[in-house]
Amino acid sequence: MLPSVHFSGCTPVWVWDTSFRVDGVPVKLLREGEAATFLGAQVGFNIVPRMASLAEITDIGLKIARSKLAPWQRIDALKTFFYPSTVHMQRMGTFSKSDWATIDRILRPELKKTFYLPQEASGEFLYGSAKRGGCGIRLLAEDSDIAAVDSGFKLLTSPEDRLASDATAHAKKTTGMRLRKNADVAELDQYLSGEEDGVFRESRGYGGVWSRARNASERLGVPRVVDGGHTAITHDGTILRRKQRREVMRTIRESLRLKRSETLTAKPDQGRAMECVAADSASTHFIESGDFTRFADWRFIHRARLNSVPLNGPSSWMAGDRRCRRCGYITESLSHVVDHCMRCAALYLAWHNAIVAMTKEASRDAVPGDRRKPVDWVTEAAPGPGHQEGKCGVHCRRRNGPVRQQDGRLRRCGRVQKREVRAAEGGAC
Ligand SMILES: [Zn+2]
């Protein structure tokens, strides 16, 4: 049962020592400074901020990030259990945005360690969209703003008429307190859009769900618009109406992630390889599942994608020897190490053949045509009777951008006949 609290609004403001009874049973009385939790939010008078809870949240996140699980399992656990568990507190406004930002700052170095990235690596890689090669990790500070906007919108567009009308009346009352007059619907929309000009120029602070929604809307750029006689919210060109009330959080979050991914790919150094990675979401399939990924691969791939592998060549600001440590080539760049260094030619061939074998195995049942027939790949032998022919071309060469990648694909098509001849003779395709 919820405890009772009785306080006087007259100066001096204080809590009265009044006991209440329900059916003759005394209700626990909250004294000044005491608090209780109701639906996840603290209630009471002059409540002490529950910094212990904030520390607990941080501790849980750090325990997962520092656990002995495989790195992709740690990321999966954080995404599946840790971040979703904070949404309710964000909706209730239990902690301020700066508190959530503190947890983000504490967790960020651990996340970079999980991806084996140097601490100076771009944060956009962690928090970018998984559709564009990013890791798709949530930013708690950003999520708290999105949750505030989402909660306000859901209250005002509730399918329960009484709840929606009560919420609208309460929001109008809060707007009226700011304006010092009765507010209409247009002024309510302006207030919740974060309008600072005109009648809203004078600042008066009134905390609460609507104030949080207003401040969050202003920071995120989510104004309210009138669409077909109904109020909707818009973000980055997308209009979210009443029927999309359940998609607000996901839409805004993904839009912000995509912007971060665009920022990353626009970076001349760290975004160079990410431009290719972002071309297809399949490039990041292994981040959550760890499929086809060894620990050595994991330690290398994220650094390579951000061009952060400790090599002699990429650091143009570094003085000293920039030659390849294996073959003595003039510049030890990433493309040289993973593709061009002739001391590793045998490894490149083995890598290529392993990918060909894996691709053939994975696509054995996915070849268009008559699926009842098993596939005989032209790299192995001529198709047997009752079998169909499949062609497998794998392009492993790493160049400096998607245009070169496309060039490679075209060259591969032009050489397919030669490869088939070589393959028939026992070579790789
Ligand atoms: Zn070399």
Describe this structure in words.
By secondary structure, the chain is mainly alpha-helical. It has three domains: 7-44, no CATH class; 50-310, no CATH class; 341-424, no CATH class. Helix content is 46%, strand content 9%. The protein contains 17 helices and eleven strands. The strands form five sheets. The protein has a three-stranded antiparallel β-sheet with strand order 7-8-9. The protein has a two-stranded antiparallel ribbon with strand order 1-2. The chain has a two-stranded antiparallel sheet with strand order 3-4. A hairpin with a 2-residue loop joins β5 (35-38) and β6 (41-44). α4 (97-114) packs across α6 (140-156). The chain starts with 6 loop residues before the first strand and ends in a 5-residue tail after the last helix. Mean pLDDT is 80; it is low at 403-429. The structure holds zinc ion. Zinc ion binds at residues 324, 326-327, 329, 336, 341, 343.
Task: Give a brief description.
This protein is mainly α and 429 residues long. It has three domains: 7-44, no CATH class; 50-310, no CATH class; 341-424, no CATH class. The protein has helices at 51-65, 71-82, 87-92, 97-114, 123-127, 140-156, 161-179, 185-192, 209-220, 248-265, 271-277, 286-289, 295-305, 334-340, 345-362, 402-414, 416-424, and strands spanning 7-8, 14-15, 20-22, 25-27, 35-38, 41-44, 224-227, 230-235, 238-240, 375-377, 388-390.
